[in-house]
Amino acid sequence: METRKVQVTGGSTYTVSIPKTWANRNDVEAGSEVEFYPDGDSLLLSPRSDDEGTTGTLDITDLTDRELTRAVMTMYVSGFDVIALEGSEITTEQRSTIRDATQSLVGLEVLEETRDRVVVRDLLDSSELSIHNAVTRMRLISTSMLSDALTALRDLDDGLARDVIRRDDDLDRLWMVVSRIFRSTLRTPKAAEELGLPREACFDNHSSARQLERIGDHATKIAHLTLNIDEPLPDDVLSAIDDLHEDAVEVIDTAMDALFEDDTEQATAMANDAREHVRDIDDRVRQIDELLRDLDPTRAQLLGLVVDSVLRSADYGGNIAETALQKAAPTP
């Protein structure tokens, strides 16, 4: 850390010198323009750049299928605006994988293809994105997935179960967008200014989005389990699971309402209610366990996995409530 004294020039202008080592490292010299970003009681300084975006280059010669898909997603979440994928000779399978990965991510399009190079670019303007809207959309998708997964289980509706599984792609796509936005706010103060949100708020949204993505994963798990069931399940067990689901959704909705509540006292009360309700759910789970003991081991194990997924969804709602409590707490 270096310190500087504030000087006064011209009788009314405050000036502070810039450390030379920092200026050299960031190509700042006499005549260069810099940008200032207020952040609470801090003032962030950044070199001004006219670049259209950051470019990342990746050698994909030895990458195929899942590894290549994951590499494209990682570059996207990391915040690169232009992603150049290069190799000695890009195969047809690699091109197909790149196109599939590009289509699964919001804003990405292939701009250039040659024998040894594929370039994709993010065409979305970050200033037009809303992390709040993305998280709100994730809330709706994840809770509807959980509800439909249990409906499919009750009715043994394979079509609905497969629909739940497909919707998980939409949830993952939004999760990637939220992650990309959040990482961009950590990297540059300009991104946070364009969003109109402090970085702490971006962190709260990112943390909660992660919990919603996990709820979607458990809804998908229930849907997959449903596809392996051939015979109707006991009505008393299904009724108990429905009650458990209602409690879980109440926790999730209360926690999300608390997260988006501006009144700190009300947000704290709502978040505490959600946390307390998670503890009450444990008693209901124990009652369901008693019902499962009367079933044959195979069905009991399968339904036990369903109950565990619903319980974990409630726990994730409790995690969101914890984030809401931290958001409502006094700022140091």
Number of domains: 3
- The H/E string reads EEHEEEHEHEEHHHHHHH
First-last Cα distance: 21 Å
Continuous helix count: 10
State mean pLDDT (0 to 100 scale). Answer: 89
Low-confidence blocks of residues: none
CATH class wording of the largest domain: Mainly Alpha
- By CATH, the superfamily of the largest domain comes out as Phosphate transport system protein phou homolog 2, domain 2
Count of strand segments: 8
The name CATH uses for the topology of the largest domain is Methane Monooxygenase Hydroxylase, Chain G, domain 1
Radius of gyration: 25 Å
Structural class: alpha+beta
* Fraction of residues in H or I helices: 55-70%
Strand residues, percent:
5-15%
**Order of strands across the main sheet:** 5-6-8-7
* Main sheet: strands, sense, barrel: 4 strands, mixed
CATH architecture of the largest domain: Up-down Bundle
Q: Which word captures the global form?
A: flat
Pfam families: MazE_antitoxin, PhoU
GO molecular function, one term: DNA binding
Organism: Halopenitus malekzadehii
Protein name: Phosphate uptake regulator
Please supply descriptive tags for the structure shown above.
two-stranded antiparallel sheet, Translation Initiation Factor IF3, alpha+beta, 10 helices, Methane Monooxygenase Hydroxylase, Chain G, domain 1, 332 residues
Provide a concise account of the structure shown.
This protein is α+β, with helices and mostly antiparallel strands and 332 residues long. The chain has helices at residues 20-25, 65-78, 92-103, 131-155, 158-187, 189-195, 199-226, 235-260, 264-292, 297-328; strands at 7-9, 13-15, 34-39, 42-47, 55-59, 82-86, 108-114, 117-122. The strands form three sheets. A four-stranded mixed β-sheet has the order 5-6-8-7, covered by helices on one side.
